[in-house]
Amino acid sequence: MYYSSGGGVIGGKSYENVNKAAITFVTSAQHYFPKMNAANMEIPQVNHIKIYVLTNKGRYSFDGVESEFTVEKSPWAELFYKGNEVITQLRLINAK
C-alpha cells in the first residue's frame, strides 16, 4: 500500500491480521462497485478521498469529499472504515 503523502508498506500479505482486513475490504468493495465510475488516475483534491477497485473489466473509483466517507450515515462509510482497518493493520506491523 502506498500513501499519498509518500512512503508505504510492502509485504503485509504475509501477516494474518492484514490478510483478514484486506479480504474483508475487498469483499465489501464488490457491493460498491456498481456505484463507481471508470477510474482516472488524478490525485484527489485536498480534503477528498479516492477509493480504487481493480477488476478483470478495468479500474474503477469513487472520489468524494472526506465527509462523504466518514459520516456514519454515509453510504460509503462502511467501505471507508474497512479500508482504514487495512491501513491500521499495516501500520501496526510496520511499527514493530
Write the layout of secondary structure elements.
Elements: H1 16-32, E1 37-38, E2 48-55, E3 58-65, H2 66-70, H3 77-95
Antiparallel strand pairs: 1-3, 2-3
Helix pairs in contact: 1-3
Account of the 3D structure:
A hairpin with a 2-residue loop joins strand 2 and strand 3 (58-65). The chain has one domain (14-95). It has helices at residues 16-32, 66-70, 77-95, and strands at residues 37-38, 48-55, 58-65. The protein has 96 residues and is α+β, with helices and mostly antiparallel strands. It has a three-stranded antiparallel beta sheet with strand order 1-3-2. The protein is 43% helix and 19% strand. Helix 1 runs antiparallel to helix 3 (77-95).
